[in-house]
Fold this sequence. Notes:
heterodimer, A: mainly beta, 6-stranded mixed β-sheet, B: mainly beta, 4-stranded antiparallel β-sheet
Amino acid sequence: QSVLTQPPAVSGAPGQRVTISCTGSSSNIGAGYDVNWYQQLPGTAPRLLIYGNTNRPSGVPDRFSGSKSGTSASLAITGLQAEDEADYYCQSYDSRLSGSVFGGGTKLTVL
Amino acid sequence: QVQLQQWGAGLLKPSETLSLTCAVYGGSFSDYYWSWIRQPPGKGLEWIGDIDHSGNTIYNPSFKTRVIMSVDTSKNHFSLNLISVTAADTAVYYCARVGFSGIFDYWGQGTLVTVSS
């Protein structure tokens, strides 16, 4: 059972927009800690996709965007492409754990 | 360009000790915390703990009684030891750099550790 809750799976057709939610609590996202997002392609290590709720590292397409409100955060992907098919994880800090917490991950399927 | 390269035994028997090491190439070793994260087969990511260049550690309470992290600043290496492993510890283990605001900005390639009798 992950501290941050994500939907197990989402899907969309090429060119469409999808969103992935990440729900936390008052000890993590709701406490004001930043949410970061990672993309994990099959058989590879996770890659930082969004940091500080809304920021993209260099090299990440602007089709990816993040937002945060209250105890939740969201990752949006517009103009879906086949190469976006991957697992996506949210991550934050939890004051009860005194460390990092991850969501359970969401598998994105591009139809 | 920062690179993390990790290695360690991939097959263990129950009750043995898991030992992994991660080498850091490029960038500053002393300015960051360094982390271990694992991923059981088909499951999500789980944070194990962090260590800095002085050996200060922060452990996930779920592992606190079994985990020891260490650092060798002469080689820019950091290590994970997990004692008394069971089949539940079977996972891909990753090392990672903890950047500003707790982001994991650089990752090792991952090491599959299987615990089986």
